[in-house]
Batch of 3 targets.
Target 1
Amino acid sequence: MHHWLHRLHLSHKISILGLIVLVMTGIPLTLYVTDILGELRQARQEAEGMPSLMAVNSVVQQLQVHRGTSAAMLGGDNTMALRRPAIREAVSQHLNQAQQALRQAQAPDALQQQLKQMVQSWQELEKAVDSRRLAAPQSMAQHTQLVSQLLLLNQELMHAFKLSLTPHADSQALIQAVLAQAPLLTENLGLLRGQGAGFLAQGELPPENRGALRALQRRVLDLQGDTGYSLQRAMALNEGLRASMTAPVEKMQALVGQSLKLANEQLMEAPTLTLAAPVFFDTLTRAIEAVNAVVTGGSDLLAQSLRAQESAQRQQLITVLASMALAIALSLWLALVFIRSITAPLHQAVQLAQAVSQGDLSGANHAAGTNEVGELLQAQQAMRARLRPMVAQVRSGADSVALASAEIAQGNMDLSGRTEQQASALEETAASMEELSATVRHNADNAREASLLASSARDVAVQGGDVVAQVVQTMQGINDSSHKIAEIISVIDGIAFQTNILALNAAVEAARAGEQGRGFAVVAGEVRSLAQRSAEAAKQIKQLIDASVLRVGEGNALVQKAGSTMGDIVTAIQKVNHIVSAISSASQEQANGVAQVGEAVTQMDQATQQNAALVEEMAAAANSLRLQGEELVQAVSFFSVHGESTMQP
């Protein structure tokens, strides 16, 4: 459900909500319109049924007149017989009009068939009366039966055209009065008129009929009261009816009262019947006509009221439909306006977000509303405005980082090359120091041998006095040894010179190594000092050896002087012994120093190699930093700050 809602656009969601509201509004509106249409159809049916009811009532009125006239004629009143043909034609004419009215109103076929049968009954009754085949009571009974059928048809028509279901109280009261109660009132007045005229025509009222007339009189009084009450209620509910119906109603009440008084005094309470039948007949006829006038006037007013109600219902329906159409149109217009007011800023916000996502930070800010969508658009515009200097600063920093990392990488590459050269030089120096160490150790061995020889020479010199005889031979050995010593001293002198040269080279390499070579420079200085001292000692020994060789050369000639100079020789030999011992100690110290220098050079070589590895790592890191800087520059160049073209990633 949520995924389906998330796929819908906002305009579609609002449209769905509008459709739901429209359906929710349309259901009661449909019910209301259906109710109005039902009331309109009912009002139309009521208006269409009024002509039929009025036509049937007219037939009833004329048939009632014919009933009274026929009763008087059959009772022997020839005056009433002269009136009957005109009344007979009126009944036939109103029956035809009633049939036509039912057809026009599209009354139910069953009711039309009933009226048709009543027409046939009327025709048979009229022929029987005209031929005087019926007695007055039989004529009265058949007329009354036909009137009852017409009144029943009237009630069926009221139900068929839904006049009995009208929702308006004034119309309901008026319908009850003029279509139900007044016809019954006229019927009972007609019965009273017919029976009374017949008895007056005969000149006597049998006692058995007097009670029936009194019951009929009470029935008329009840119907008069009911009809008057309904009319008064209708007039009370509708002021328009009061203005039109007051005079006819008052006239009807007065004439009905006079008729009942006349019937009571001249018929039911009279000891003898002296009133002429036509007088009684005309008096009740005027009362019946007054009632019929109320019925006719009320029917006309009811028809007008029903037509007015139909028009009002139609106008109400048109007004409601027009109002709802206008409301729906206004709602649709407002919905479109609301949707555009929401979707237009949202569309701008989406375009701005898409532009930022594509790296375009250019563009001017547009005015936005103060609602939530406007605040969103303003926030995005503010974000874009803040991103511009930030991206520009990041781009500048990225360029600087890329340039600096490139320089660092180049410097590290150069440093790596120099470190490798230094490592190579230190390896060579270490190899030279190993050779120097071997040479110095050999020199120390020779110095120890020289010291042993000097010790032997001292012993020989001490015993010189004892072995002077053997001096020549010994001097010859000394001469040979002196030559060897001279060679050894030359070697020592060469070693000291080479040591001095190596110490000088080591000092130069230590100076090139900088801070890391400072300790090595101190050691190299000490080695150089020892080398100089060794060279000086070797020089002195060489001079002594040269002198010894010279003396040995002259030894043969100076053997005689050996005894006197032996002490000097012993002293010189002792000095030589001391010097050789010093040379031996210096050579040992020199060997130890050269070993230390070798260890220092080895450590420097290891440190230099480690430095070379670190420099290579630094070069790799600097190169990686340079690549990252270039990637950062490329990434930042994706954004366009002032309308410049963007680089697609």
Target 2
Amino acid sequence: MVKSFISCCPYDCPDSCSMLVERLDGLTVKLKGNPQFPLTGGGWICKKGKRWEERVRSPRRLKLPLVRDAAGWKEISWERAIALWAHQIQEAVSSEGPLSNFVYQGAGSLYYSKKLFKKLFVDLGGYTEPRGSLCGSAGGAGLKKAFGFTPVYKPDNLKHARGVLFWGRNAVETHPHLLPIIRELRIKKDVKVGALEIRRTSTTDFADVWWRIRPGSDGALAALLCKRLLESGDAWPSWRKRAKNADGFQEALEGLNEGKLLEFTGLDKPTFETIYSWLLANRPVAIYAGYGPQRYMSGSSTFHLLVALSLLLGAFDLRGAGVVFGKDEDRMFPVELVGVPPVRRRVPIGDWVLNVSRYSPKIKTALFTCCNPAKQSPGGEAFRRAMADISFKVCIDIEMSETAKLCDLVLPAACFLEEGPDWLGSWWHGYLLRSEKVMDPPGEALPETTIFTLLAQKLGLSMDLEKARNVMDQMLKSSPLVKQISKGVYSFKEEDTWCEKKAIEVFLPDDLTAITEENKSSETLRLVSVHSSEFINGQTFGVGEPEVPEIFLSEKDALDRGIKDNDLVVLTAKGFDLKGVCRIDKTMNSGYCIMVQGYPWVNELTTPRVSPGYGAPFHESFVTLRRL
């Protein structure tokens, strides 16, 4: 008999889709978009979410705890697994204190229940965790510099815009439920769409017009546009009323070398003028800023400048204007269920792997959950060395990931369809989504709330995270800030920073050093890794990996190296050689090569670093390339 349930996609994606689930039997499910959810265009989900139909009962699913010994991996009971883990934690706390326990939680699932487990480490006295993110912390830091908090741009605000500028954001492949909204605005309001990119993409094809800039020059272009607006008298007349440090900002712009910065962007003067004219003709402009432009050392400064540019174009007075990036998807999570750790050490996510042996107190145990940093973090070899320096490592996952293979204990987790009730926020829209349990997990896999409850009991802590999950469920359902729209879909009160806050003032940048520093070499190429429509971050289930990686190269760089299209080539960085196949892209400029992120070999070539805002500047990695 077919049974129906409500759920939502757990992926780290702005769309955060509500889904309807049909359970056909104990092993088979069918997923489709919830037609009652306002932002899924009549009820559809993308292929990434749809693949959960196969993934939920994939033969790759972990079903029993695994421990590594001298002979390799072997299955053990939950009782033994929990006892082993608890013993290692107790030994670490006894010898080094609570900061010796390293907790690495990623965004493999954005479900609220995934945040409850830290209560265990709070009750143990504290923990160490990464600071920042591999994703958007640098850009977010730039926005916070301007506002003092993370601004909110509601999707509904977009209907007031006359222009939408995708600034390094390939929305067609990574934000598909935005597209029907823009298509409708094109028809009804003749909204114009522009794109700034480093090569032709699905989004540049979707746009009315696009312009190519060099990687890492986004801040330089934003500064040049700000400078031109002020010098030409085209800046919004009342911009100073909203600005802090207006004089310092203008002085910084006046000191810029326009010719040098324009050369850095790769734009000629007529093309720059076309961009400038487009912005003036189509304001109010919504700037949809991407994640690539903030994966440089200048990323935070770039986003600070995008706020300044938006202000000079009329933001706050013109509805629809603003910078769209991300927001706090966990705003409604009841943090009181977790508490505040007595002590907490935060280590930069971009380069902790280089420093783990020097930390004091020493890291003795490490937990990895909802993440796969062995595949996703910069510097693959550095990560493996760091793991070797940690005495005991635990990974909780649904499959045997690259990170799990480096651990000592691997615990099988339930996936989102196998646990609940649960909740999900969004870093794009203003809805909370609720999910129900659809089926039991395979084998002896358990929800993380159960796993940590068992661990707490073994450690002598009074804690029931399954109960806490149900308390959270009741708190959110009964919150005066939350209103049910349909089954599993709730709205909550959220103020739009760009058009609903009347007293907003923004602090403008007065130090533009970061955006004027160009890293380049005549012999090396900047390595840029880009997102794919096929999978989220490193979760490549159902896609497969190419036998030979594709490396995209400009015509000029290929010609300079005697390389032809489809030639086998070798990329080299940090003593690591990667064989790939060259794909000549006539829409690229020279000085960089492109690979699709998410595959295990890409981060063998990237460099562990920390950018302002505790980001991971993946694109500050350089390689040499030769024909094989």
Target 3
Amino acid sequence: MKKIKFVLSAAALLLVLSCSNKESGKAETERPIYIGQTWILEAEDPLNASVPWSMTSSGISETVYMLDESGNLYSRFIKEVERIDDLKWKALMKEEAKFSDGETVNAKTLCGAMNEIMEKNKFSNATAGIITFMPLSDFEFEIKTERPAESIKSVFAEWSNVVFKRLENGKFVFTGPYIIEKIDAGNELVLEPNPYYPNAENRSKVIIKLFKDEAAMKLAYSAGELDMAFTVTPEVAKMLEAEKHIVKTVDAGYQYFGIVNTASNILSDINVRTALNFGLNREDYITALKGGRIPSGIFASYYKFAGNCSLKYDKQRAQKILDEAGWIMGSDGIREKAGKKLELKLVTYPSRPDLTVIMQIMASQMQELGIKPYTEIVDNIDGKAKSGEFDLILYAQHTAPTGDPSFFLNQFFRSEQAKNFSRYNSAKVDELLKEMGSVDFDKKINYAKDIQEIIFTDLPVLYLVDPQWHIALSDRLKNYKPYCGDYYIVNSELFVK
């Protein structure tokens, strides 16, 4: 009898513990996940410039194809794609993905969204030109590109191409794992689980808080007010690690580079651009950032299509180039030519703190060359770039978010494209980009390397740093795996421990 009582007592204890664990798990799910970032989404318009990227990063929208943690393309919408000819494709859809209002995504809604994006967001036209989509049945549609695109899946993964539906009231619904509860512009973004996304019951509400000040974000994290600080500076990362906090260091996939205004009075001169390229010591940036690599081109070193360019610091050579170009050192330490001072306007933005560190060091390096720098930090960096009111912009971009080099190269270096902020115009590069759209991936690798060599010669951009990022996590998110830079910060796998 005592044995039976013991067994029953043990069973009762296990039941209590099981219920307790379930309640604990439920409580953890009900408690919001707090994320600190240096930027937050302030609108939900899928047709507005780079807003679609921000929405996907925040877990609200999804592109037709996306990257997984291993860098492989996958789609919740497309079952298979068949190529018909150079410009035409046929897609067969899956029948499972739903919008956040519960309606299944079909060919009509997907094609309608894509056609509107192609018409209204010029960033979507970079790789294959304007693409037209036509439904053939409920879950089958035709795709026709303006220019050949060997990998239509990679085009579908470009950040502009998000799946959405416009409602009768003019608002939009999306397909991501989260929906917007509240946007408090300049302060916070509140998200709740999309009930029609798989495993919604296991997700917590997410609150993304904006921090313009790195020190304030560090204090909030250290005080237990944040589950994730994305990202923290190397100095902060070191302090947090010393305090036994969880900090993950990852290859960003992003590249830090200088966009040269080739139409400016001074940097239109290739001699000045070349002198800058030799006179900037990238090792100083890496030392200050406590991590990263000297780049070999415009792509992260782990990609097969990364460049083979060799950046060399040679201050004396830089000075000699400027001397021979007629820029003579003045008594005030500033070079002058035909009565004009060698002055450059450097611009960057606060949401990438690493860039402000680089800009401070770069300004000092320029002074050593006899160049007088003027520095400016602006919130709307793309607006500044479009205005042309700069000489050199320090910029950060994930240059291969689809695992393919085509998107970035077309966006930034094809003549007249929306993000060709350097005003670069190269018939040779345009021709290579055109040919690149018609070749398989293995051949595309060589095209990408060749284009990077031409860019290294012409210098519409200056390669600066292949960086690493530091993300601080609470114990609740210790299993969180950041990947693809900040393209998927809030993703379907953002579960608490």
